[in-house]
């Protein structure tokens, strides 16, 4: 029995020892593994523990391009070398200054943007002890006692920096400051342009080679807007902010809520601004993995960027260029003659009356530079941002208003005679100063009868003319009625064009009934050249007020071959309203407009008679006190403002199937009727000639292309026959 017990005890001991041995081995392995983790891989794991993730937006993609209606590029993007800096979170002044100093040795940086405040801040950073010495012991005591703040101390230092001390900054230091200034103007983890204009290949290569010693610095390709036609249509195309300007301060919250970065370039005016969402594109999104110090450990693209969509305008650049040349030539010609000291601008709007598409939007302004040299500047924008009294061109609206208000009916006649009202000078038509003749609506438009319009306005006010009468009617009510109907043509209201800052013109204040008569002949309210074009288009197309638009369609980015991309959106014609007039009433005015240019007695027949494209339209002259840019000069000299004439013209062609409508506006054309230059008519005739000339050339080119294509096809077929 004793032997058996001893054997059992021995077996238990062996098992226990084996178990302890196994446990020992396991602990040894665990300790070994912990040693590897802590000693060998500890730094890597510590970095993983401390790292954080940020999603940020990389450098903006190029904006969409802009084409004319024929596919000719107007605005493009030109690539350019760029040097950027991405500031890590928590980057110190010392770190950025050190990097800026290194970069300054590799590139040349202009210092013209460095301000006096920048220099003072920099001087304090470079001269800490000297800056401290500018604060007195008493002021330090007040600071320690909490009477003044740290900001107050800093301001004292800034105020006490002398001009001599600022001048002590060397050219090299100023260049470092200019670079450092760019570093600090950016936002953490967002690339900031340091230099993108004039970066030489040598600079680009040097920086690229030294990126490892320039933390945050990178080389990339940036872009710049390029304008194929220089200043043509430049004011309408608009501007974009620079990378230095970034988002406009007044709209920063709006853009930030739409995933913009603070230093993004955006459209700031007109087409670039109006179509920002289309042109901006989709930026590349990058996920940056950083440690707690802000050092980037890894970057991953989570969304590829894409250039902005392209715009195809309704503008015909061949026509636009030709119209601008015509305006310039006529302005120079008029300025070379006596009697035109105040003439300084002219405008032309051409549009398709059936669709509202703007074919040409041209304006030129005479300007004398500081060196005394005269030049013509682009002022296309003036077609929508400036307004003038337009004169007799609005008489078509007056006649139709008479019809629509049931004051007169088609074919209605009045006696054209001098209008003599009690206590006021006589008013008459230019062609009939003293006689009396019966005229109907056709003749009134053809010869531009003022009296017919005066009496129409009186009828709207339920008043019949009698010589030497006192004009008694509710002038305010009559004007309101006429303005309401004029608005149906687009006169005195927004046209609806797809551009910002459109003006509606000035509505004069009614103080006496006689002003109603002035309104009826276009001598009271002011209108823009675009409003005139919309007005005459409404008559031309039979009564539909079309919404004018300058963008024809939106397309995906062009292919590498340069071919315009696939259609994204087509801008369809839009009718804003229809005239409250019958077809026969509108036809009466259309015929009157045809007679203006086509009948031997028409006011524009001398210039348009015999034109093969059969135009129709209305001339206008508005006399009034000068209200242009030199107005203040007269007032400062104590001189009375001179009387001037605005000369205008509206029209369309062909009259029986209109495809183009236009307005010509030449403010302050002359000061005396002795020097009256029909610049409105000469411009009008030349722009219509050019429109139909271009049309014929393109039709001929298309026919030629078809013939060539057919010949090539026949040649291929003949070749195949021979082979068979």
Automatic annotation (TrEMBL):
<dbReference type="InterPro" id="IPR050515">
    <property type="entry name" value="Beta-lactam/transpept"/>
</dbReference>
<dbReference type="GO" id="GO:0071972">
    <property type="term" value="F:peptidoglycan L,D-transpeptidase activity"/>
</dbReference>
<dbReference type="InterPro" id="IPR001460">
    <property type="entry name" value="PCN-bd_Tpept"/>
</dbReference>
<comment type="pathway">
    <text>Cell wall biogenesis; peptidoglycan biosynthesis.</text>
</comment>
<dbReference type="Pfam" id="PF00905">
    <property type="entry name" value="Transpeptidase"/>
</dbReference>
<keyword id="KW-0961">Cell wall biogenesis/degradation</keyword>
<keyword id="KW-0132">Cell division</keyword>
<keyword id="KW-0133">Cell shape</keyword>
<comment type="similarity">
    <text>Belongs to the transpeptidase family.</text>
</comment>
<keyword id="KW-0472">Membrane</keyword>
<keyword id="KW-0573">Peptidoglycan synthesis</keyword>
<dbReference type="InterPro" id="IPR005311">
    <property type="entry name" value="PBP_dimer"/>
</dbReference>
<dbReference type="GO" id="GO:0008658">
    <property type="term" value="F:penicillin binding"/>
</dbReference>
<protein>
    <recommendedName>
        <fullName>serine-type D-Ala-D-Ala carboxypeptidase</fullName>
        <ecNumber>3.4.16.4</ecNumber>
    </recommendedName>
</protein>
<dbReference type="GO" id="GO:0005886">
    <property type="term" value="C:plasma membrane"/>
</dbReference>
<dbReference type="InterPro" id="IPR036138">
    <property type="entry name" value="PBP_dimer_sf"/>
</dbReference>
<feature type="domain" description="Penicillin-binding protein dimerisation">
    <location>
        <begin position="60"/>
        <end position="299"/>
    </location>
</feature>
<dbReference type="InterPro" id="IPR012338">
    <property type="entry name" value="Beta-lactam/transpept-like"/>
</dbReference>
<dbReference type="GO" id="GO:0008360">
    <property type="term" value="P:regulation of cell shape"/>
</dbReference>
<dbReference type="GO" id="GO:0051301">
    <property type="term" value="P:cell division"/>
</dbReference>
<dbReference type="GO" id="GO:0009002">
    <property type="term" value="F:serine-type D-Ala-D-Ala carboxypeptidase activity"/>
</dbReference>
<dbReference type="Pfam" id="PF03717">
    <property type="entry name" value="PBP_dimer"/>
</dbReference>
<keyword id="KW-0812">Transmembrane</keyword>
<dbReference type="GO" id="GO:0071555">
    <property type="term" value="P:cell wall organization"/>
</dbReference>
<keyword id="KW-1133">Transmembrane helix</keyword>
<keyword id="KW-0131">Cell cycle</keyword>
<dbReference type="GO" id="GO:0009252">
    <property type="term" value="P:peptidoglycan biosynthetic process"/>
</dbReference>
<keyword id="KW-1003">Cell membrane</keyword>
<feature type="domain" description="Penicillin-binding protein transpeptidase">
    <location>
        <begin position="347"/>
        <end position="688"/>
    </location>
</feature>
């Amino acid at each position: 029995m004793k032997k058996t017990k001893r054997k059992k005890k021995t077996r238990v001991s062996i098992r226990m020892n084996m178990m302890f041995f196994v446990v020992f081995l396991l602990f040894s392995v665990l300790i070994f593994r912990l040693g590897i983790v802590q000693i060998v891989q500890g730094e890597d794991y510590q970095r993983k523990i401390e790292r954080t993730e940020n999603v940020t937006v990389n450098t903006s993609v190029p904006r969409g391009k802009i084409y004319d209606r024929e596919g000719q590029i107007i605005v493009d993007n030109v690539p350019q070398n760029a040097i950027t800096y991405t500031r890590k979170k928590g980057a110190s002044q010392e770190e950025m200054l050190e990097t800026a100093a290194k970069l300054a040795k590799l590139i040349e940086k202009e210092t013209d943007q460095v301000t006096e405040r920048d220099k003072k801040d920099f001087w304090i950073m470079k001269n800490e002890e000297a800056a401290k010495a500018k604060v007195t012991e008493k002021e330090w005591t007040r600071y320690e006692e909490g009477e003044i703040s740290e900001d107050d101390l800093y301001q004292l230092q800034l105020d006490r920096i002398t001009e001599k001390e600022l001048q002590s900054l060397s050219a090299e230091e100023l260049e470092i400051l200019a670079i450092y200034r760019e570093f600090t103007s950016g936002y953490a983890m967002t690339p900031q342009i340091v230099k993108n204009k004039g970066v030489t290949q040598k600079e680009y290569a040097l920086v690229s080679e030294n990126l490892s010693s320039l933390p945050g610095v990178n080389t990339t390709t940036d872009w710049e807007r390029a304008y194929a036609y220089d200043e043509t249509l430049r004011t309408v195309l608009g501007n974009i902010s620079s990378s230095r300007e970034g988002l406009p301060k007044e709209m920063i919250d709006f853009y930030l809520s739409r995933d913009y970065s603070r230093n993004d370039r955006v459209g700031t005016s007109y087409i670039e601004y109006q179509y920002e969402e289309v042109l901006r594109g989709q930026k590349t999104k990058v996920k940056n993995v950083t440690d707690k110090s802000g050092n980037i450990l890894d970057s991953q693209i989570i969304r590829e960027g894409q250039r902005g969509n392209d715009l195809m305008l309704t503008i015909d650049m061949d026509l636009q260029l030709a119209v601008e040349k015509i305006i310039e030539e006529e302005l120079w010609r008029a300025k070379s003659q006596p009697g035109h000291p105040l003439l300084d601008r002219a405008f032309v709007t051409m549009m398709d009356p059936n669709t509202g598409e703007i074919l040409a939007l041209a304006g030129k302004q005479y300007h004398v530079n500081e060196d005394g040299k005269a030049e013509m500047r682009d002022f296309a924008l003036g077609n929508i941002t400036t307004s003038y009294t337009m004169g007799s061109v609005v008489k078509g609206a007056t006649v139709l208003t008479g019809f629509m208000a049931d004051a007169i009916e088609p074919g209605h006649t009045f006696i054209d005679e001098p209008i003599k009202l009690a206590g006021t000078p006589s008013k008459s038509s230019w062609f009939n100063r003293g006689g009396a003749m019966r005229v109907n609506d056709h003749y009134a438009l053809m010869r531009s009868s003022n009296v017919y319009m005066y009496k129409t306005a009186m009828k709207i006010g339920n008043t019949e003319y009698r010589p030497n009468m006192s004009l008694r009617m509710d002038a305010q009510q009559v004007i309101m009625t006429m303005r309401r109907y004029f608005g149906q043509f687009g006169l005195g209201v927004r046209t609806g064009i797809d551009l910002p800052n459109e003006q509606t013109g000035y509505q004069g204040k009614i103080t006496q009934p006689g002003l109603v008569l002035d309104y009826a002949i276009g001598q009271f309210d002011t209108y823009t050249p675009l409003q005139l074009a919309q007005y005459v288009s409404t008559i031309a197309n039979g009564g539909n007020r079309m919404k004018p638009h300058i963008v024809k369609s939106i397309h995906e980015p062009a292919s590498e071959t340069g071919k315009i991309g696939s259609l994204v959106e087509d801008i369809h014609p839009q009718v804003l309203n229809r005239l409250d007039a019958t077809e026969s009433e509108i036809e009466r005015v259309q015929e009157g407009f045809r007679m203006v240019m086509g009948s031997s007695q028409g006011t524009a027949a001398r210039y348009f008679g015999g034109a093969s494209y059969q135009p129709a339209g209305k001339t206008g002259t508005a006399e009034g006190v000068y209200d242009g840019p030199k107005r203040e000069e007269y007032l400062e000299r104590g001189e009375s403002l001179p009387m001037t004439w605005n000369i205008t013209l509206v029209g369309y062609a062909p009259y029986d199937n209109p495809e183009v409508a236009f307005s010509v506006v030449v403010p302050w054309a002359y000061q005396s009727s002795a020097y009256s230059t029909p610049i409105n008519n000469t411009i009008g005739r030349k722009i219509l000639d050019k429109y139909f000339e271009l049309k014929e050339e393109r039709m001929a080119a298309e026919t030629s292309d078809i013939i060539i294509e057919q010949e090539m096809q026949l040649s291929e077929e003949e070749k195949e026959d021979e082979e068979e």
